[in-house]
Structure formats: structure tokens, C-alpha cells
Amino acid sequence: MKKITTKQLTTMAMLTAIALAIHVAEAQIPAPVPIPGVKLGLANIVTVYAVFTIGAGPALMILVARILLGSLFAGQAMSLLYSLAGGLLCFVVMLLLKKILTRNQIWVASVIGAIFHNIGQILVAIVVTGTPAIVSYLPVLLLSGIAAGLFTGFAAQTFIHRMDKKS
Amino acid sequence: MKKTSFWVILICVIAALSALALLWQHHQAKADAVIANVYQDGELVRSIDLNQLTEPETFTVTGPAGENEITAEPGRICVSHASCPDQVCVNMGWRSDGGFPIVCLPNKLVIEIESAADENPIDGVVG
């Protein structure tokens, strides 16, 4: 692994802090529908930004740090497992998509990532509870995930384009 | 640009399939389902025929994250109290059909209403 420069470290630390702040703030908003797993996932904006601008390694570190600290501040021990499974699956898929998407299709990575995030969550929920019937939540989660993914995806894409113009 | 339309179509197809599955679930839920199965950590701890109940019944299930108090009434069931902070399972309210199971993830608790149609698959045959 390459040595991390001070600039990179600062960027990563700042992005982690932003993602964590969004994560904790979002956890304070009551869930719009009483279905476990439905949420906006605003912190994903930071993950998308990191994947598309500063690269895989730093993005992964930011994601894992945010999920670990976020669960510590705003969640329960169990929610860590779901966030981690969903987050990592989403991350891998976005990383693969990064290779084939143009700068104007960044939102696609976010939507497909959200879909895989939901699939990861459901898989962990099935394994943890030992109840395959939970799969009946998948359609609701996919619909809400696509909507949330569109929103965070366009937010991230706009942000990336603005940052491009600045530098 | 061609590529963007591919992604748009793909996402629309996934969304449409989800919506269809949702409609199908809703349709299934109309079936005459009355048996509530309570699972903890994948094991069936209670099975209640909701139509056989004459008065409300309350019992407690203990899991790794605390307790869930479950109340069953004639025709419906809910989690009435939970010791967890987020109360998702309590907010899910009463269930009287097989639409969605009530789930408490921290406690590995699932309450599923069995569809009567499952037990009698030839119900729909005409003639």
C-alpha cells in the first residue's frame, strides 16, 4: 500500500467527520414508515463522492470508520451488523460500476449500490433471525432504496461536478 | 447517451418488479390467514390461532437485546411493549393478515401470520 500523504489523511478525516455528522443527524429523524431498514442513507453521498474522487482504499476506510462510529453514537450493537453488510456490498458494487460509468452517470452507481445495500441487509437479517420469511421485505426495501439512491446519487454527482470546477 | 438509457431501463425494471411483488403480497394478504407464528432466533416459540381466541392474551419473549411483550387479540396480534430504544416493532402495530411479518431485529424476533392458502393449495381450482 502506498504511503498516505498528510493531504489525503486530512481529506479522509474530514470526509469521515462529515459522513458521521450526517449519519448521526439522520438517526435522529423518526422513520417515515415503521419498516426496519427503510431510510434515506444520506451518508452514502460521502461514500459515492469518496469512491469517485479519492479512490477505493481511502473510500473503504471512510465507510468502515463511519459505520463503526455511527453505530456507536446512534445505533445499537445489532444495527452495526446490518449497516456493515449492506455498506460493504454496496461499496464493492459501486467500485465495479465506477469502471464503466461516465461522470454524468455517477447517480447510477448510487442507485445500484442502494439496491445491493438492501440485499445485503436482508441476507444478514435472514441469517441472524434464521427466518427466511423476512425476504418478503425485499420489494419494499428495493423501492425505497431506489428512491433514496436516486436522491443521494444526484446529490453526490452535483457535488462532485461542483468540486471539479473549483479545483 | 445510449448507455444512460440502459441504466434507466434497468432501474425501472427492478422498480417495476418490486412494485409487482408488493402488489402480489398485498393480494396474498387477503387470504383467510389466522395463525400467528412467533419465532425467536429462528425457532417457533408460540403458535396462536387468532380466530380461536376469545379474550386478549399477553406474553413475553426474551431475546439477546431485551424483552418483547406480545399481545394477541381475536383476529390480530402486535408487539405491545419492547425494551429496546427504537421501538420499530411496537410502531409496526397490529397485524391481522399475512402481508409483512413483524420483525424485531435486535431481539431476533419474528411474528409471521401463516396464510391459510398455503395449507390448502388446491383452494383455487374450479370445477
Task: Please give a structural write-up.
The complex is a heterodimer of chains A (about 170) and B (about 130). With about 170 residues, chain A is mainly alpha-helical. Chain A has helices at about 5-30, 45-55, 55-75, 75-100, 105-130, 140-165. Helices cover about 75% and strands about 0% of the residues of chain A. Chain A is globular. The model of chain A has no long low-confidence stretch (mean pLDDT about 90). Chain B contains three helices and seven strands, in the order αβββββαββα. Chain B has about 130 residues and is an alpha+beta fold. Chain B has two domains: about 1-30; about 35-115, N-utilization substance G protein NusG, insert domain (mini-chromosome maintenance (MCM) complex, domain 2), CATH 2.60.320. Chain B has helices at about 1-30, 90, 115-120; strands at about 35-40, 45-50, 55-65, 65-75, 75-80, 100-105, 110-115. Chain B is globular and about 60 Å long. Classes of the chains: A mainly alpha (about 170), B alpha+beta (about 130).
- Radius of gyration of chain A, Cα only, in angstroms? 16 Å
Largest sheet of chain B: 4 strands, antiparallel
Number of structural units classed as domains of chain B = 2
> How does CATH name the architecture of the largest domain in chain B?
Sandwich
Outline type of chain B: globular
Question: Secondary-structure blueprint of this entry?
Answer:
The complex is a heterodimer of chains A (167) and B (127).
Chain A: H1 6-28, H2 44-53, H3 56-74, H4 77-98, H5 106-129, H6 138-166
Helix pairs in contact in A: 1-2, 1-3, 2-3, 2-4, 2-6, 3-4, 4-5, 5-6
Chain B: H1 2-29, E1 35-40, E2 43-49, E3 57-63, E4 66-73, E5 76-82, H2 88-91, E6 102-104, E7 109-114, H3 116-119
Antiparallel strand pairs in B: 1-2, 1-7, 3-4, 4-5, 6-7
